[in-house]
UniProtKB/TrEMBL annotation:
This protein's UniProt keywords: Membrane, Transmembrane, Transmembrane helix
Lineage: Bacteria, Bacillati, Bacillota, Bacilli, Lactobacillales
Domain of life of the native organism: Bacteria
Name of the protein described by the UniProt record: Uncharacterized protein
Record Gene3D superfamilies: 2.60.120.200
InterPro entries membership: ConA-like_dom_sf (IPR013320), Lectin_L-type_dom (IPR056573)
Pfam families: Lectin_L-type_dom
Chain ranges passing through the membrane: 7-25
Amino acid sequence: MNKLINHYICIVVFMIFIFLNFNIAKSATIDNIPAPPAGGPSMQGNFNVVGENVPNQIYEKYNNVQIITNGNQNSKQAMWWKNKINVTKAFTIKFYAYITASDLNNVADGITFTIQNDNYNAIGTNGESLGAYGNVRNRNYYIKDYIKNAFSYEFDPYNNADYSDNSLEDRLGNKIKGQHTAFTSTNSDEIEKLRSTNGFRQIHYDAHSLDDWPGIMYPKWHKFIYSWNPSKDLKKATATVNIDNSNIVQSHELDISTILNNDRQNPFAWWGFTGSTGLYTMISAIADTAVSGDPGITKLVLNLSKLSDEEKNNITEEIDKSKQSLKTKNELKKCIYKPSESSSNPDLSNILVSIINPRYFQSTIKNADLGDVLLYKVDIYNYKTAEGLGNDWNNVKVTDSDLSKIGMTSLDNENNIDATYDVIPPIDIDSKSSVKPSSVGLRTIISSPNGGKISNIRNNVVTASGSNFYGDNVLGADSNKSSIASVYVNKAQPPIKPRILIKNNLINLSDNNSSYQSNNTTLVDVSNYDSIQYSANISNIIMQSNTSNKATYTFGVPSLADNPQIILNNRKINNKISNISTYYQIQDSKDNRKVITIYNIPSIRGGNSAEIKANFQLGSKNPSNFSYTPYFTDKENSYYGSEENYNFKNGQIFFDYINNIDYGYKNSYYMQGLTSPAAIFSEKTKKSYIESDKKYVIAKIIDSRREKNSFSVYLSQLPIKQNNKVSEIGSNESPFELKYVNGNNISSLSPNSVPIEIYNRKYSSNEENDSIISNIFWNTNNELKLSNSKNFNLEKNKYNKRNYKAELNWIIKDNGTP
């Protein structure tokens, strides 16, 4: 029995072995390379690829994959990222590698990740030299075909024990006789002569057998994370590599001069990959998911409430020079001269950071007070290297921490920055072009005093992430590129001025298609007599402050059918004037619209708010659009909400009806000249039923627009969607075609014909703005007529009797636009 069990076990093991090797062999082509585990920057165009027998690529299939070897013999390739890295600074590069072969016992020769300061087209020898080193089987190793000033990490699936891998050991002195990984240097002083042969062996550092990562040669992607950390004196650096998040971390410390060749004035080097084959072959590819570069982010701050008169004047001059509208310029100036009362329009902050001189912003400001308005400026930059190389920073996401947690309240309706950029291109640091570091602005007011959980120092951190660079975030590190802006706040001293924040909202209750939105200030397709629900939250965001009990709130409406119903803090108020109680009044504005003001609003303490609700019905005489900005006034101070907009339905132009045109019955396919309906006779009566001298109304056009302008009507013929094309007037098989006659002008119609203008309506400035019915009349001088078709074969079709039809297409073009 035991022999039988062992027999079946042997069969199963043998079948598993066959299955694995069959699938490995099947996958050992570039066509069977699977999708990489993660996306990343495009290889094409970002890498400079050099070498011999460079294989065809699969960029269209996987844009972040580069094939290094495709199973051919005697090939070599090197690929260098177009953006150099600074080897005196820390960086991390993440990539995936795919290496396999049909015969896993003879996979050759390997790949490297290399940092070098040789040149953009550097490449070594093929075979065991992995496209990076020189020919170790030749005493002339250091004469040609090796990458100078380079440091590599090799993934070597073939042990060349006689030369390059001779006497290979791990860090404990144990012999490694097979596939391995290790750090190496390509320079000639990092190899040793072999006594028994006329060649060299490569010196390996922290070598590991591939047995440390079981299954690493099977056809799948493996993750590599390469980190570089310079010492404090910037003389040495430690390189570390981790594969597939294992607990094995390979590392080696080297002298940075190995790469820089003692040129510390230019600490930049190329980075990339090499690979090669010799007698044996392999399938290998790299998928880059993150690359290092020089992007960054800076957060600075300016206290708008503490600007000097000189600074205000300088900023005002720049505002006047800008291309902004007069209204926007005035709002920007208010942000400078009365920052605590300025509009809560977030666009103003973004404009300000682009106008204000950068030297006014600091990483730290002191002596800020409760109620001061701060302008934060975030610069997202992507500078090229010293060599002028760089790559786009794609899909950049910028966020910062919630300002409300450090006792501040945004004046831009958002308490943190949340910005997204599709691409931030690289620019020169001293670039004079219009492409500048992207800037985001955010105004906030210090709303809470010291004490409790809020410290005197208010720090705010901003982060940014993008698809072209490794890591979740890119943080500023230097004081002049800090991602942290600090604000020192003085102890609050009374009296403290309040700051009102208004959140107003509009809902059209008569619009069945409208949905409730808490921040809606624009209504579209409004009609006469619509019912409107209005609301406003008026909050005092400065703690330890109070408004008076004589404050007012004012908002405008386009018209009123009757007095509105107004509720303040859940209590209905009336329009009876009082010195004590809250009441409202309605006045006509300059353009005869209605302005509603609520008087004697009770005091609002810091941290509290007042709720206004109003329901009203619009009247009948409304403009095409109406806008008004509500405001809260307390003593000499005014605070504004968001602009409210009513866009009324403008009406439309449309056809009331269109008559069919019946040409009656005709015995012959042949006619003299052009024939009108009046010349065709009824099949039953043999008489014409159309009076030739009468005007027939073919179409009525209704123009219900509030604001009218000229329009034209065009006519064309459409193809009839049916199988039997013989029944279609104007087809090649039809005996007839249509002509449009307009006086002495004759135009042809046929299926898919060019539209012909048959009517033009021009309005004068003194016409009434009511609906106008415009009739299209047809008679003998203005009508469609039949003519014989030039393409019709009479002999072939003369015995056929058919009903011929045409489908007309009418187009109204409003002011030249369909």
